[in-house]
Specification:
MetI-like fold, about 0% strand, disordered C terminus, elongated, mainly alpha
């Protein structure tokens, strides 16, 4: 009997993953809900006239036909801010996760593959970053730059969050390095670069893919925490929720902050369910527990 080629095995693995994911209630719920939120946020400008900066000089802030979610304390349209803020919050989450992987994956891969001094240096650097409270460092950056933008938040969170990705990949690479196929690749005379990327990295990426949705939700929550402290991005969901710190707004003018809070909870729940679905699909044994 002929052995299946590497490409055929990978194709079967992909089919198995997709089959398991489609049959995962949590995964499909998270995927559908997150997709619905993304489509609503990015397609809303095609159907509604949005202007998050315009000030309306009227006395009634409550929801009306002209302003379906009412006006906020600055007399600006809450619905426009909800859509624009959703784009900002999602872009912060996705951008931060991408930057985290761009930094953490090469460092974690190099640390696990070469080990020795390289591994020690990467791990010590990761421990150093993890030893500082992230929120304090973010507040320090805000104080230095005097202005908070989506780009600054993405760069700051990405630089501060890479140790988690690097350590996950490092531990996985260490395990893969002891596998028989890696020893066989060395015996065949493959170069270190080829072994690193074709034999080690491709067999170590699963934990990173599984953790990606959770990192997106963590990034969105961190930006919301900054906004709730009064130093977040001006148009994000977190900034709208910040209005709830005013007792009168929290109790009597819930339209100013409640829609953003509901959307934020929906994103966090959908992303976490998506992550659990991906995890269960890669390792069905976990799903059966």
């Amino acid at each position: 009997m002929k052995k299946k080629s590497r490409g055929a095995r990978l194709e079967n693995a992909k089919k198995g993953f997709l089959y398991s994911f489609v049959r995962s209630p949590k995964g499909m719920f998270g995927f559908c809900l997150f997709s619905l939120i993304v489509l609503a946020i990015f397609l809303a400008p095609l159907f509604f006239k949005l202007d998050a900066e315009q000030v309306y000089f009227i006395t009634n802030k409550a929801p009306s036909k002209e302003h379906i979610l009412g006006l906020d304390t600055a007399f600006q349209d809450c619905f426009s801010k909800l859509i624009v803020g959703g784009r900002v919050s999602l872009l912060v989450g996705l951008g931060t996760s991408l930057l985290t992987m761009l930094i953490g994956i090469p460092l974690g891969l190099a640390a696990g593959f070469y080990q020795g001094k390289v591994g020690a240096a990467v791990n010590r650097a990761a421990d150093l970053f993890l030893s500082f409270p992230m929120i304090v460092l973010l507040l320090l950056l805000v104080a230095v730059f005097q202005r908070v933008s989506a780009g600054l938040v993405v760069v700051a969170l990405g630089i501060l969050s890479w140790p988690g990705t690097a350590k996950i990949l490092y531990s996985t690479v260490i395990t893969v390095m002891n596998s028989e196929y890696v020893e066989a690749a060395r015996a065949m005379g493959k170069s270190n670069a080829r072994i690193m990327f074709t034999d080690v990295f491709l067999n170590s990426i699963t934990p990173i893919l599984v953790s990606l949705p959770f990192r997106i939700s963590m990034s969105v929550m961190m930006e919301t925490s900054l906004a709730f402290l009064g130093v977040g991005i001006a148009t994000s969901w977190g900034r709208q929720i910040y209005l709830a710190t005013q007792m009168n707004v929290m109790v009597n003018q819930m339209w100013m902050w409640l829609p953003a809070a509901v959307c934020l909870v929906a994103v966090i729940v959908s992303v976490n369910c998506l992550g659990e679905g991906i995890r269960d699909s890669y390792d069905p044994k976990i799903a059966r527990r």
